[in-house]
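Lab notebook: predicted structure, single chain.

Context: the supervisor wants predicted structures on file for every construct in the current expression panel, including those that have not yet been purified. This is the next one on the list. No modifications to the sequence; it matches the entry in the shared construct table.
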Amino acid sequence: MIFKHVSPSALLISLLLAFAPHPDAFAKHSSKKPHAVKKSSGAKLRKVAFSPDNEGEFANFTQWKDVSEFIDMMVEKHGFDRPELEAMFRKARYVETTIQLIKPAPPGKPKNWHAYRARFIEPVRINAGVAFWDAHADALARAEEQYGVPADIIVGIIGVETIYGRNTGSFRVLDALTTLAFDYPQTPNRSSRMDFFRGELEQTLLFARESGIDPFSLLGSYAGAVGLPQFMPGSIRKYAVDFDGDGRVDLRNSPVDAIGSVANFLVEHGWKRGEPIAFPAAVASNEPGRGWDMFIGQPLEAKFTLDELKGAGVTPGVEPPHDMQYGLVDLQNGEEPTEYWLGTTNFYAITRYNRSFFYAMSVVELGRAVRSARGG
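Prediction complete. Output recorded below exactly as produced.
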């Protein structure tokens, strides 16, 4: 039986991942009102200056049938004032840029983990991560103690998302979400994606009302993600926490709130205190029928025993705990051999933040690189 090569560097990474010091951001709609967000319904809205990437064009959304039905829902379900909503949607802009950016990439070159990794594990991001960790060491230590999420994972996520707040996006969230909610591009999943963005538009209006802010003041990515950790509005309402204790959640201006919110998000999506993250693995290349193929393309969860994986031709680079469950992570390298890992529940918790193996492993490796650069 022939096994694909496991590099010495992969073995070293595995030891760091598995035995590091102690040691998912689209959210479903929640009808609960989280205690973490300061409530101030009916408060006077405060204006905030903005410089959007794309100011969009006038569309008079109030004349769109689906928008009119959405307004009806917000009035009936949440008690919003109809004239105020109609005035707001007359001000909302159609942003063509969001449509172009949200479209799936055209078929092209195979996925390449090494190329993807190089975008994030690089000096600018590592140095910025060291500065961020040094500036917020106390908050990171407190989050690690309270939630059980290692500081390097929190640092990795914020670094991958926005380079520690340097690139949080400058689209008006209301414009971006309105555009995507009612004119998502023609794709096979168009209906479900429009439903998702309508839900996020609903969450945006609720969050703005609860927080006493002008919804047009919320700036974010072309898809509506906000702040240092790039939470969607639904995730803000459900998972964000007031970690700096000032009485309100502010993911745009409070790195401490961002730190606590990332940790809370991971815990709410299955993170387990003190457990390892991933182990390198090899697969049998000449196994009849390639039995390990059954573990590829599975839902994003760790649900297989070590014996099941081994029996199908998967061999760990180092022996993982036998009392845990795993998933087989495939990191494709273009024309080069695919890199394989055994992902634990904690690895899959990171994929709930962004449903990508590349993303999750980049978070892990960036956090590790920043920790190493700090001398820890």
